[in-house]
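no rush on this but wanted to send it before i forget. theres a chain ive been looking at and ive put its sequence and its fold in token form underneath. please have a look and point out which stretches look like helix strand or loop to you. thanks a lot i owe you, the record is right below:
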Amino acid sequence: MAFDKIIENHKLEKIKTIGDSYMCAGGIPVPDEEHTINIIKASLDIQEQMRSKNEQRRAAGQSPWELRIGIHTGPVVAGVVGKNKYAYDIWGSTVNIASRMESNGEPGKVNISSATYDLIKGRYNCIYRGKIFAKNVGEVDMYFVEQEISAIIAHGDAGKPVQDLFIIK
């Protein structure tokens, strides 16, 4: 499966699939200083994989598959559950907020919380999109991740100071 390979390439941990949802996490079970960057890179790679797949689907006269990605950064409780059939799983507010990021996103976009934005804002161009209410948390700011800033500079915007490359609406 293409998603599993992308997750593996970025040193992330696939947690599970639930219906049409795919859950993965960074920094567990082995801590990794780059887990937030790795999960952003993986999410953009997955979106690119879907764009490519959808070009093929359209060419074959098929409907495209729409995909939303939601990311939040924070602590989780992780462990193995089950008596007869074991499963590694994660729980907590971070999981719930990531789910809200996904459900409040848009197809073809990577929607992140302010906690994640604070960790990547120097490396990725993001667009502020407002607040959502997250159960047991309150309002959470959301951003769409556009692209890595070095990619913007490599494509002709090198003359602009880095802080001018951010789009805040």
Q: What stands out?
A: The longest strand covers residues 124-134.
